[in-house]
Request: fold
Amino acid sequence: MAIIQFDNVTKRYPGGHEGLSGVSFQIEAGEMIFLTGHSGAGKSTLLKLIGLLERSTRGQVRVAGRNLTQLKRRHIPYHRREVGMIFQDHRLLHDRTVFDNVAMPLVVAGLGHRETGKRVRAALDKVGLLNKERSYPITLSGGEQQRVGIARAVVSKPPIVLADEPTGNLDPELSLEIMRLFELFNGVGVTLLVATHDLELISRMNKRILTLRHGRLLQHPARGGHHHV
Amino acid sequence: MSRAGRHRGGAIRLDTWLLRHLQVALASLGHLTRAPFSTLMTAAVIGIALALPTGLSLLLGNLQQLSGHWDGAASISLFLTEKSTLEKADRLAGRLRARDDIARVRLIDRDQALDEFRTLSGFSGAIDALDNNPLPNLLVVEPTPLHSTPEAASALLDELQALDDVEFAQIDLQWVRRFHGITEIAQRTVLILGGLLGLAVLLVVGNTIRLEIENRRAEIEITKLIGGTNAFIRRPFLYSGLWYGLLGGLIAWLLVSLSLFLLESPVSQLAGLYESQFGLSGMGPGAFLLLLAGSALLGLLGSWIAVGRHLSAIEPT
Reply:
């Protein structure tokens, strides 16, 4: 079953620039997929359409059986709770501890105190930061901050996780570590869509790849390893 | 599935819901106490703005209470005809007492009046020289407070004037009219002032909350990003507004109480000069609660307006 489906989706920004032009594809539940292309090719736009940070100008976006084109504004928060998002710049709150940052999605969803603590520690344990729960993000390295961001994205166990250039600022070794972490989540059934232009990294992962160029999807059945843009 | 999400939200038990609100309320109070100086400044502005109309209306209330002591102001004197005997005067007084627009009727019989006049005026010799008592029997009629307005009192005066036994009815309406006119102006002034200063409180709270929203922009964006509903994001700001209002109300109460305390001794001195027992009455518990409720409501409303205008403008990108 397709958990993410784009049908001829176009996103035009005010001023006429087209971020995406007639994009169609499907992602099956439980897949891990890379989204690649030059900067400005439309990777971020595509992710934003899935997280409903933006809406398509034309065409249909379906996520988890929901038609996002018709989703009412007041239902957006509930949609976002099922889509974990990871950013290149982490987007952590620097006046809160690691624990409080990771707990945010659970607090927002109204989870009880005990359950929240349990789940936050489980998430921090998975990303290897259990000993840092009382630290402030600013005292952590870039890789550790990114792992806090990942813990926050998965703590509420969303079926879909999106990552926008998650390794953009990390050295190859740390990047690979992050990818292994993603594989771990993918292994328990999470659908992952990772936007990156790090082809070197992709080539080592053997996953399906979507390539964008100037807002259009290139057709290639290729899997990582023998794919070149 | 958004439905499922809402159902999950709806299934939260009431005590959990209350607990969560309490947590948010305390958290936003904690937020305010972390910047005590600026919080106090804002609350003081609100307090002063509220103290002014509150104090004025309290003074006005005192003034009206004072006028209540001068019941005589609206009392009507009925001078009865010479033919009207004491028994007839007594019967008339009885009839008048039965009316529900009249609070009290006092009969001053002519002999008694003459005696009083003799002792008090110092004309005892001249009075003794008179063949008969020149004074008529007198009824002093006090209308009920409801019928003490100039219009009602003057209508009553006309009615009493028309009675058979009454020679002449008199009331110092001019004075009553003027006093009512003045208090009405004062009342309306307090109302206008209260309205304007209430608006000022709304603006002060609205502006403060707007700045707070601006300061917590990143937090709001991220909260929206991870699925925080508008109600969830709104809540701490609304509680902030509520706390500002409550704090401002408390400061207003303190200012008014202090002012009354400072006025108390000169007022009682003045009252002493008039041989009156009058003393300023302060704010009762009812008025105090009303002030707090009003200020809290203004704070809530101010933040509601700010939140409505500015929160929707912040969307994650």
The two ends of chain A are 29 Å apart (CA to CA). Chain A has seven helices and ten strands. Residues 224-229 of chain A have pLDDT under 50 and may be disordered.
